[in-house]
Each structure stands twice: as structure tokens, then as C-alpha cells.
């Protein structure tokens, strides 16, 4: 089968969401070729600290090595294939030892020791049996990995979207971020692409989240003012904006598959916090840069195919494909070191609303992803149009296209990347 | 005769199972918290994200929504039964009390899959009670799910 035949400029075939064979090909050709966000420097602060993550369906271990550099390997023992680390994070100052027969691997995968070595005299070359190393590159403390040794540099992959990571890092008045040790996970029985095609879709909230808007209004009436609303209730209410608001808002798309839309949550800090935080940022960046940082307001940035970024709320989410019909989304929240505590509290409130399976907003999205799986699983379900806003692009230049936030341009852009990755080597 | 604190914990569970949400919220103090942390190691909802960290407003919004036919994830609203066991009053003063219990919530939700329709939530629950105008009310309910760190699918019914 030729995957490129499943994608046109205007339509995509339903099987891209439901065919297990295509999913395996995606793991090999998309997740096997792209740069995948893995971890932040602060999660592996000391030598020997490690975290386990995934590139597609392949488990990897990211470890802080003794020389201070970060190293990544596939989480698999080269003896009989057992996974090396079971925990999401931990300390392995002496290396990763396989629980089965005790082979010991260094942070970079080098096989350091096999027990009862005499058995292997002349029949096993340690140097040739290291764990598979994973290429790592860092962008401002964010570590990305790729299984493709021939992949171009990370900055080329990020392209103009690197500015969304700058946006996050530059919000710290010390230049430092730290990742909170607690993470928030949800999953749904549906394809990983559903998340990517939903998050910057500004038409769905008015329908999918209508019940939340009604209930938030009900509470607002009871409270008597919108100012006194708790943050998640405010977030529920925000989904009720008129469509024209999103029509006027910009969406930016850039290859390969990335996008963001303009900010629209109307986020504010309390006056005290805002004053102190502004002063901190001016002290660190100087007035001009500080003004630029505070003036930037982007909603979600999607780095196709594996992560979503919200700088204003210091949140990064990893979209983890498990099976063609099972996906996990993992939310990480960051502290702006040195910033007023309210900036962290604000971020926590956002991630609770945006990534908890119990969020009144997200539970509707999860339901719809599962309905998409069901409907697209019907034999002969057919072709899915993604022509919304096809003729509405506003401006193109320098690797960007600017278009209304109501457009499905970001989905078309994702499938252009999809088809490109999926081409045979 | 049940101990009054045990009766309150059981009454809360019954109101949830009856989907009598206004009466459920009325059991709580105005400044209450309904908290489902992502790890039993968390000591405050300000340390990181939570599955739920509701104030009274969010409890009201969340439960008001369940009655709306356009809450697509709750068509029809989930049906639950709570099993409450091992209620223990761990501390008590004139106006405050801490009550532990083990709870299991069996939930049925109309889904597409056969095995996916019925789920279990369970763990240790801590009720921090406070006397308000002579009545005992719930100031904080903390639910430490045994799979707190786990990945959750849509949760509609309060646990
Ligand atoms: S499988 Fe790892 S040492 Fe045998
Ligand atoms: Fe949504």
C-alpha cells in the first residue's frame, strides 16, 4: 500500500486512524524519523538521575551522565530483551542493570559488565553489545531525541516554532525552569492524531463543550460576577466565545506539521504579582525584551507529531501513541524559577483544566475521540474532508503561513508532513 | 446507631449514588476542597497538578453539567455505587475532625465497548470535617486513588 495515496490536498482516508498496519508504519517512519520531545534538563538534575519516556512505542531512558551531559538509550537489554528500567524516574549512579541476568549498561548504552564473564570468553564482544543509543539534542534545556541517525539538526525541525519554546523559557526571570515532579495523565481509546487535530480546532468548543459553557454560566449567575469565578470555571466559560472571535484570530502553520494559534484565554495575574513579575523580568531582560515577552500571547503550539506547548501556562504535553486505537497524553507543568508563586499556581490550574480526564472540558474531548474511532472504524467509512478555510490563507512567508484560527489549515499541514514522513526511505 | 461522622461519610456516598448533587454540595463548607491528587505523596494541591482540585464553584459546575443532555461524555449520566468501609475517626476536637475510610466506587457508563462500560475507582478517603453553625460539614475530601499516578479515561461522576 502507498500511504501517500491516502492523503490529498482536501481529503484524508479514514483508515489512517484505524488501520493497525498503518500505525506500525507510522511508528517506523514518523516517530522513527522525527525529533521527539523527551525531557527537560531539570528532571535529571544530578549525575545518575534518569527518566523513562517513549519515542512512538519504543521505550527510552534519558540519564544525566557523569560528565554532566544527557544521554539516551533504548530501554532494552541486549541479552534477551528485558526492559532495563521500570520506573518513570529514579537514580542509577552505577548504570542500568538488567533485572534478568545482571548485564550492566552505562548511561550511553555501553555494556560495562556481564556476570560470570568466563562463559563468554571469545564468544561475546562487549563493545558490540551495548544498548541502542538514541541521538539527543537540546533546545534551551528541552531534550529531544530521534531514532534516525540521519535526521537533520533539531533547530531545522523546530524551524520558526522554536520561538514558542523561547516564549516559555524567556518568561523565567532567572532564565531557569524546573519541571514539577508530579504529572497528569489521561488516555483514550482512539488514534494519536485525534489529539493533534483537535487542540487547535476552534470551531469544536462551541459545540463539544457547550454543556460546560451552560454550567459555567449557571455558576457565574450564582456567584453574581465573572470576576469571582474560579479558574477552571472561567476556562469552561471561555469555550463559549462567538465564532467570529476565532475567525479574527490568527493561526500560524509551518512545516513539518507544526502550528499555533493566537492566545485567547485572557489570562491575568493579580495586580501585585503582575507588578513584581514585570519588575523581575525587566531586571533580567531589560525593558524592551521584557515588554516583548509579556506582550506575547500564544495559545497551544503543536510540535508534530509528539508534543504540545503552552508558554503562558508553562505546560508541555506529550502525546504518546500506544496502539492505533489507544493514546496517552501526559501533562508536565513548569515552575518559572524566581517568579512569584502565583505564576506556578496559575499554570497548575491550567493543566488541571486542560489535561485531567476529570476536567469538564477534556472529558468531552475524550468522548469525541472515541466516537471518531467508532465511526471511522466502519468498513468503507470513506474520505474525510479537511477543506475548512482552504481559500482563506492570509499571508505566507519565511516558512510560515498565516490563516484564520478557524481554518483546518493546521490539519492539512499535518498531513503534508505525514505523507512526507511516510514515503519510503 | 452509627457514629455521626460515619453517618456523614455514608450519607455523602449515598447522595452521590442517587445523583442528588445539590444535596451533595450542600454537605460541604463554602470554602471547601474536593481533591483527587496524582500521587499519595502530594501534601498540597499547589505542589503540582491533580485529577481534581475543586472548590465549591467547580463542584457545582461539574455536577450541574451532568444533567445537561449535551454533556456528550455522560449520555446517559453514569450510574455508580459506593462501597464504604473501615471508617475511622483519627482525630477530633470541638469543631474539627479527621475521618478516614476505604472506598470503592463501581461505575457504569454507556460506552461503545463491552468491557469498557464498567469501571472501578478506589482508595483511601480522608474527610476533614468542620462544624459550621452547629452542623458538621465537609471542609476537605481527599481521595487517594490506588492508581493515583495512572492514566485516566474520562471521569464524569464525582468519586
Ligand atoms: S535479559 Fe537482560 S541480562 Fe538477560
Ligand atoms: Fe476540546
Can you give a write-up of this model?
The complex is a heterodimer of chains A (425) and B (159). Chain A contains 14 helices and 22 strands. By secondary structure, chain A is of the alpha+beta class. Chain A has 2 domains: 36-150, Rieske Iron-sulfur Protein, CATH 2.102.10.10; 158-422, Naphthalene 1,2-dioxygenase Alpha Subunit, Chain A, domain 1. In chain A, strands 12, 13, 14, 15, 16, 17, 18, 19, 21 and 22 form a 10-stranded antiparallel beta sheet that branches. Chain A has a 7-stranded antiparallel beta sheet with strand order 2-11-10-5-4-3-6, with no helix packed on it. A 3-stranded antiparallel beta sheet of chain A has the order 7-8-9, with no helix packed on it. Chain B is globular and about 50 Å long. In chain B, strand 3 and strand 4 (96-108) form a beta hairpin. Chain B starts with a helix and ends in a 14-residue tail after the last strand. A 6-stranded mixed beta sheet of chain B has the order 2-1-6-5-4-3. Chain B has one domain (4-145): Nuclear Transport Factor 2, Chain: A, CATH 3.10.450. With 159 residues, chain B is α+β, with helices and mostly antiparallel strands. The chains are: A alpha+beta (425), B alpha+beta (159). The structure holds FE2/S2 (inorganic) cluster and fe (ii) ion (FE2). FE2/S2 (inorganic) cluster binds at residues 77, 79-80, 82, 98, 100-103 of chain A.
Amino acid at each position: 500500500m502507498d500511504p501517500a495515496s491516502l492523503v490529498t490536498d482536501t481529503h484524508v482516508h479514514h483508515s489512517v486512524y484505524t488501520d493497525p498496519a498503518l500505525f506500525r508504519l507510522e511508528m517506523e517512519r514518523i516517530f522513527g524519523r522525527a525529533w521527539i520531545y523527551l525531557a527537560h534538563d531539570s528532571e535529571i538534575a544530578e549525575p545518575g538521575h534518569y527518566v523513562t519516556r517513549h519515542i512512538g512505542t519504543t521505550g527510552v531512558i534519558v540519564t544525566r551522565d557523569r560528565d554532566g551531559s544527557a544521554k539516551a538509550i533504548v530501554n532494552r537489554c541486549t541479552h534477551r530483551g528485558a526492559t532495563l528500567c521500570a520506573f518513570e524516574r529514579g537514580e542509577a549512579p552505577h548504570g542500568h542493570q538488567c533485572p534478568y541476568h545482571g548485564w550492566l549498561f552505562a548511561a550511553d548504552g555501553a555494556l560495562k559488565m556481564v556476570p560470570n564473564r568466563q562463559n563468554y570468553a571469545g564468544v561475546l564482544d562487549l563493545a558490540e553489545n551495548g544498548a541502542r543509543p538514541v541521538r539527543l539534542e537540546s533546545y534551551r534545556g528541552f531534550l529531544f531525541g530521534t531514532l534516525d541517525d540521519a535526521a537533520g539538526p533539531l533547530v531545522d525541525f523546530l524551524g520558526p516554532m522554536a520561538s514558542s519554546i523561547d516564549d516559555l523559557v524567556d518568561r523565567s526571570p532567572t532564565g531557569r525552569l524546573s519541571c514539577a515532579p508530579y504529572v497528569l495523565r489521561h488516555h483514550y481509546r482512539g488514534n494519536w492524531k485525534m489529539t493533534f487535530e483537535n487542540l487547535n480546532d476552534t470551531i469544536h468548543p462551541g459545540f463539544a463543550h457547550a454543556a460546560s459553557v451552560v454550567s459555567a454560566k449557571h455558576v457565574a449567575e450564582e456567584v453574581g460576577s465573572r470576576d469571582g469565578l474560579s479558574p477552571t470555571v472561567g476556562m469552561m466559560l471561555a469555550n463559549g466565545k462567538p465564532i467570529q472571535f476565532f475567525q479574527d484570530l490568527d493561526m500560524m502553520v509551518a512545516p513539518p506539521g507544526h502550528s499555533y494559534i493566537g492566545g485567547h484565554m485572557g489570562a491575568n495575574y493579580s495586580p501585585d504579582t503582575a507588578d513584581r513579575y514585570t519588575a523581575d523580568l525587566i531586571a533580567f531582560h531589560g525593558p524592551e525584551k521584557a515588554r516583548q515577552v509579556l506582550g506575547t500571547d500564544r495559545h497551544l503550539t503543536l510540535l508534530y507529531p509528539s508534543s504540545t506547548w503552552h508558554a503562558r501556562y508553562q505546560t508541555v504535553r506529550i502525546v504518546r501513541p500506544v496502539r492505533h486505537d489507544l493514546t496517552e497524553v501526559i501533562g508536565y507543568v513548569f515552575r518559572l524559577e524566581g517568579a512569584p508563586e502565583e505564576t506556578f499556581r496559575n499554570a497548575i490550574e491550567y493543566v488541571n483544566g486542560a489535561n485531567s480526564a476529570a476536567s469538564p472540558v477534556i472529558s468531552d474531548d475524550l468522548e469525541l475521540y472515541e466516537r471518531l474511532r467508532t465511526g471511522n472504524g466502519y468498513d468503507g467509512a470513506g474520505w474525510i474532508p479537511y477543506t475548512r478555510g482552504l481559500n482563506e490563507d492570509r499571508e505566507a512567508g519565511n516558512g510560515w503561513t498565516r490563516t484564520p484560527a478557524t481554518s483546518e489549515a493546521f490539519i492539512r499541514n499535518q498531513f503534508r508532513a505525514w505523507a512526507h514522513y511516510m514515503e519510503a526511505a | 446507631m452509627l457514629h455521626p461522622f460515619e453517618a456523614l461519610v455514608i450519607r455523602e456516598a449515598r447522595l452521590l449514588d442517587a445523583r442528588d448533587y445539590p444535596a451533595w454540595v450542600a454537605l460541604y463548607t463554602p470554602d471547601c476542597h474536593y481533591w483527587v491528587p496524582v500521587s499519595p505523596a502530594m501534601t498540597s494541591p499547589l505542589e503540582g497538578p491533580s485529577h481534581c482540585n475543586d472548590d465549591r464553584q467547580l463542584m457545582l459546575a461539574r455536577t450541574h453539567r451532568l444533567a445537561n443532555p449535551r454533556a456528550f461524555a455522560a449520555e446517559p449520566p453514569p450510574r455508580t455505587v459506593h462501597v464504604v468501609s473501615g471508617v475511622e475517626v483519627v482525630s477530633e476536637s470541638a469543631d474539627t475532625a479527621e475521618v478516614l475510610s476505604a472506598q470503592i466506587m463501581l461505575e457504569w457508563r454507556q460506552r461503545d465497548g463491552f468491557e469498557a462500560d464498567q469501571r472501578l475507582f478506589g482508595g483511601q478517603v480522608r474527610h476533614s470535617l468542620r462544624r459550621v453553625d452547629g452542623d458538621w460539614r465537609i471542609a476537605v475530601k481527599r481521595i487517594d486513588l490506588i492508581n493515583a499516578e495512572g492514566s485516566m479515561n474520562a471521569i464524569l461522576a464525582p468519586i
